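4.2 Preliminary Data

To establish feasibility before requesting continued support, the project team ran the inverse folding procedure on a target of 117 residues. The structure was first converted into the token representation described in Section 3, and no sequence information of any kind was made available to the design step. The complete token record follows.
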């Protein structure tokens, strides 16, 4: 196996990360959306670092949003996460409202795009 000489290994995953512009839960500080995104990436990079600290190394993250996967796509396209993050997953919050059917349609449309990345 390439890259995994020791066989199975534990990996840290954080599957509930909100991003700037998250509907209903944008708690990032900044005077505009661009500054909020820069602060988001800086916070993640400061925490994870170069991936050498096993207590802070996160291999998989889930970008959580309400009824949208646009911010997940943005994070994938930006390519600003530490190299130790090997996978980025779209994750919708379990809070539903009347627009849930909109999210399901949006996910079907964008699924092909995510798989192509």
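Position-by-position output of the design step:
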């Amino acid at each position: 196996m390439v890259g995994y000489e020791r066989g199975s290994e534990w990996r840290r995953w954080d599957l509930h990360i909100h991003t700037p512009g998250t509907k209903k839960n944008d708690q990032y500080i900044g005077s505009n959306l661009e500054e909020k995104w820069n602060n988001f990436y800086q916070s993640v990079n400061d925490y994870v670092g170069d991936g050498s600290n096993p207590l802070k190394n996160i291999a998989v993250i889930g970008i959580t949003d309400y009824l949208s996967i646009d911010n997940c796509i943005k994070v994938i396209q930006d390519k600003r996460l530490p190299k130790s993050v090997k996978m980025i997953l779209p994750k919708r919050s379990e809070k539903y409202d009347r627009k849930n059917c909109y999210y399901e349609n949006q996910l079907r449309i964008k699924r092909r795009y995510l798989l192509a990345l």
